[in-house]
Amino acid sequence: MTRPRRSLFFKYFITLFVAVVVPLVLGAITEAWFAFRDNRLYLNEILQVEARSAADRIQAFTDGIRDQLGWVVQFPWTEGEDDRRRIDGLRLLQQVPAVVSLSMIDPSGIERVFVSRVSMNRAGRGSDMSADPPVAGARANRVWYGPVHYRRDSEPYMQIAVAGNRAAAGVVVADINLKLIWDIIAAIKIGDTGHALVLDDAGRLIAHPDISLVLRSGAGAGDLSRLKSSVSEANGSAVSTTGEDGKSVVALAVRAPNVGWTVIAEQPVLEAYESIRAALWRSVILIFIGIVFSLVLAYWRACRMWGPIRQLEKGVERIGMGQFDHRITIQSRDELEQLAARFNQMAEELGTSQQKSERINRLKQFLAPQVAELVEHSDPRLLDGQRREVVAIFGDLRGFTAFSARAEPDAVMAVLRQYYEAIGAVTARHEATLIRFAGDGVMVLVNAPVTCESPADRGVRLAIDMQAAVQSLAGTWSAGGSAIGFGVGVATGAATVGTLGYQGRLDYTAIGSVVNLASRLCSLAGDGQVLLDSAVRERVGNGFALSSIGERPIKGYDRALEIFAVNGRNMSASGLGPAGDSSLERPRQGLALAETT
Amino acid sequence: MKRRDFIALMGAALACPAAALAQNQARVYRIYWLSTQAQPDPFLDGFREGLRAKGYVEGRNVVLELHYAIGNPQALREVASELRRGKVDLAVSSGPATRAMTAVAEVPVLFALSGDPVELGLVKSLGEPGGNFTGSTFLSLDLAGKRVELLKEVLPNLRKLAVFSNANHPGEQSEWRATREAAQKLGVEPIYVPFSGASEFDSPLEKVGQVHADALLVFPDVLTMVHRAKIADFAMAHRLPSMFGWSEYCDAGGLLSYGANQRATYFWLATYADRILRGEKPADLPVFQPTRFELVVNLRTAQRLGIDLDKSSILFRANRVIE
Predict the structure, then answer these.
(1) B2 to chain A, closest Cα gap in Å
(2) What is the 3-state secondary structure (H, E, C) of A121-132?
(3) Residue contact A280–B10, C-beta within 8 A
(4) Is A120 on the interface with B (CB under 8 A)?
(5) Residue A217 C-alpha, separation from nearest chain B C-alpha, in angstroms
(6) What is the per-residue burial (b if ≥16 Cβ within 10 Å, else e) of A295-315?
(7) Residue B85 or B44, more confident
(8) Is A556 on the interface with B (CB under 8 A)?
(9) In the beta sheet, which residues pair with residue A561?
(10) B198-251 pLDDT, tens per residue?
(11) What is the ipTM score, two decimals?
């Protein structure tokens, strides 16, 4: 038998496994997606707030400087007030740490006062600065913000120029050290390592928490320009990009309007998504546990299903092969156990019915079918050995040996077949037991194994009928040119009856002197004669017309026994004397095999 | 875009980023401290303070090897060659000792200079040093003129100015040149009184007393720093108003000082030391310049010298007034 291509085990296993894992994975992914979205919105907000606050503070920084400078150019210039202006300038330096030096320019564009923290101060008429961009710019727009430049390739500086309300108030130009914005930028912390940085339009770094990056002036401008353009494109919402240090960051840009700088707030991706990464890891661990759990569960469940089914299959196979004593043992306390119990029951019933039919077949070999049924349905010990009063009937053909030597085998077999059919029919009719036949001899028992009333009567009747049946056949055989006769001997007495033999070949038989006696009587009987012993005669009483043919010596008996012949009905018509008719051969050994001497 | 981010993030999350916890806590760093002066060393104190603030504990994860070669260039060279052999993580030099280190290329060197490191050939540019040297410069050259100007503001009648200077100090000549130019602009006659090394300290100082100057200008230098009290006492004894580079001189009794805060500079130098020990290259660490300069006035000294500062603009400009 071929194994199925897809085992039930795998079907169960896969189904259970998938049933647990798929919802788990789907749930985790959905959860992660929503967590990611919320995290993203939150991150956007945080970066927005921080960048805006940095931009505002930078605005406040430049606005503060602008306001302080405006205070210096409130009054119109008059002659001889250079010293007072110088004091104003020095006080301004004191007020605003970011201002490194200050030039005050009179309405005609001449520098009148220069004060500095580092260089030497100057007072009095200096150079004409009216054409310088700061002065021109401030005169045009009141406030002028210069481009960022690096001093000695390192320190970021810019100029701010402010003109007074009236042209007569002149212009003040201040050098601003932008390193001081560091204080503002360094104070901004987004998460643990997130920070803000400030770039000018050209993508140069103005402020960064790591001041050494700023002091490197133009270095890394390419990276910064790229960062700036990619972040600015997003128009104020956070994007994932590569930061200035080459790491992945989430960044957001806002503009500081008056100076035109870009403030970028950024946080490393790893940190920004830390919480959802943790959530993802939790999900992964949960999925893993789920997978292991479902593996174990699915394996266990599939085994519990698959094992009993295999057992059932094997059991059924063995029962099918005839091993009815095989029992399927399943203890699953469910329908499978019940199914196994049903199979066991079936096997048991099959076994019983097979035994029964075997027994009946065996019985039918030597019992009439109805007797066999009777035996089968009554006490099974009926066939056991026991001592019993039985009637033994022996019969054999006369002149058969000569016939069989002469006739064709077909003819011999045809004669025997008719003979046995006739004997069988008579035996069955009288519910007697056909013990055996060998050649032309038959042995029949009455009252064993099934008891009956007045067995002797029945035995005699049976013998008479048997004689009549064979005689009517013998007529047709004689017509064929063969003289075949039939003799019967009947005796009754105690005998041991029971089954005898070995495995596969069992016979029901009777052992005792009564059997020998019947056999001897048969030998003595001539064609058409039925001989009885005295015991039979006593039993049948006057039911039949019997006549004594005198005492005869019988082999195995000390003295001669009186023997009777049946005269009843048509018996006498044959007219054959018991010892007459020498034309017929003497009885042979016949059923000598049953003889016990 | 967002979906792509999400998928990338999931991938990144599952890739399990190995946290950068590689910092070897068990490692003990050796820092070589080289100076031409002797202890007590005020700069070393500032540096140690900075290291402590960065979480270093001397003896546990950092060892400072102190080498002082006082005024002996030969000894300095020997120290430098020893440095090239030894297993040192970082060298820190101050003042003239830096000049002896120029030959060292094997270990990172941090310096604190009043001169110009580009001019000295230590670095390619301030923004990108490019070699194994980086550190801090004090802008002394600019401030040299500023100091004369401030002194002149306090003493409008200043005519003769004694300039006391350590000739072994790197860039000292440029500083003297800047001072001379400023003095000339302000109509002041500078009198140069140099000394070289600690052994030749006292007699040049006596010489200052003999030049009949109106005031004393002392160039900032480790040696004058160590002997600041002596110099301040000397100036007081000779009734000389004095001008110095760093505030510590004023605390010792000097009249005025203008310059960057030394302690802050060395404190900050320790942060560079930390970054170099963590693996950053000195070539990428720009030379730092001070942003804030402090003007300190010792009003007590002024009163003892009979100088009335109330009418001067100096007091409101001072970052600190010692009363």
Answers:
(1) 9
(2) CEECCCCECCCC
(3) yes
(4) yes
(5) 6
(6) eeebeeebeebbebbebbeeb
(7) B44
(8) no
(9) A552
(10) 678 888 888 988 888 999 999 988 788 888 899 999 999 999 999 999 888 999
(11) 0.86
